[in-house]
Amino acid sequence: MKKVFAGILGCAMLATLTACGSARPTSGEGTAAPQRGEPAAQPAAGASAASGAPESTPESTPDATPESTPEPVPGAKALVVYFSWSGNTEAIAGEIAAQTGADTFKLEPTTAYSTDYDTVLDEAQAEQRADARPEIMGGIENFESYDVIYLGFPNWWGDMPMILYSFLDGYDLSGKTIAPFVSSGGSGFSGALRAIASAEPGASLTDGLSLSSSASQTPGGAVADWLAEIGLAE
After folding, report:
1. Residues 160, 131: contact at Cβ < 8 Å?
2. Position 204 in a domain
3. Which of 15, 100, 101, 222 has its CA 20 to 30 A from that of 58?
4. What average pLDDT score do residues 116-121 get?
5. Which residue would you say has higher pLDDT here, 66 or 232?
6. Assigned domain for 66 exists
């Protein structure tokens, strides 16, 4: 009886081992995870992690010219046209004129802005919403004789003050070189370079100079470096 019982027990164990050894996960199941120390697959460069589709190309930096333009000619007759409310842009304009010998023309509205900071913010925003064109006091004589226009302004609500649009609407800058500069609290040109290029498609637009309010107080070094970079240093 012991031999019979041992034989039955042995057969049962053999059957169990055979069944375990033949078990396998079906297709699609039991996918192995990456091994420790092995990085998971990453999306290709320029693709989004979620879908693998290319991400949208970031816009140009605020100080970059929208499109490449011809090199400006050193020694060309130049004019600094600028609007300044607090005096920051005026300080940069004066430095550019001093280093280049350019003439200057300050854009002043026939109806002056408030001298109160909070009030002028409201005035500027109202002009933007109305797409206003403030009337410019005076005019520029012999404008056609200038080859280079240094165009300066503060950043107001992410744009140029609307009096700059009055200037661009009123004067044809075709064939001229526009060298833009801006003073701001840190937002740089925002979309102003594209607005200038759109308003004056026949002009050449250089890279711009963007200075913070504090840097505008002593702009000499920054102006010199910028003029050298855009090929207009004297």
Report:
1. no
2. yes
3. 222
4. 96
5. 232
6. no
Residue 23 lies in a domain: no
Tokens describing residue 21? 């050894």
**What is the CATH classification number for the domain harbouring 172?**
3.40.50.360
The sign of the torsion formed by the CA atoms of 151, 152, 153, 154 equals: positive
Q: Please, is 66 exposed, middle or buried when counting C-beta atoms within 10 Å of its C-beta (0-12, 13-18, 19+)?
A: middle
**Residue ranges in 34-161 assigned as alpha helix (H):** 88-100, 117-130
Q: Which residues touch 151 (CB under 8 Å, ≥6 apart)?
A: 81, 82, 164, 178, 179, 180, 181, 196
Query: What is the spatial distance between Cα 218 and Cα 99, in angstroms, rounded to a whole number?
Result: 14
Residue 111 neighbours by CB under 8 Å, 6+ apart:
134, 135
Q: Which domain holds residue 194?
A: 78-229
Q: What is the DSSP string of 15-35?
A: HHHHHHHT--PPTTSSPPPPP
- 184 domain-assigned: yes
| Domain count of the fold of the chain | 1
Question: Which two three-digit tokens encode residue 126?
Answer: 């109202």
Cβ atoms of 164 and 107 closer than 8 Å: yes
pLDDT in tens, 36-63: 332 233 333 333 333 332 222 222 333 4
113 and 84 Cβ atoms separated by less than 8 Å: no
Do residues 113 and 85 lie in contact, with contact meaning Cβ atoms separated by under 8 Å? yes
* Predicted model pTM: 0.70
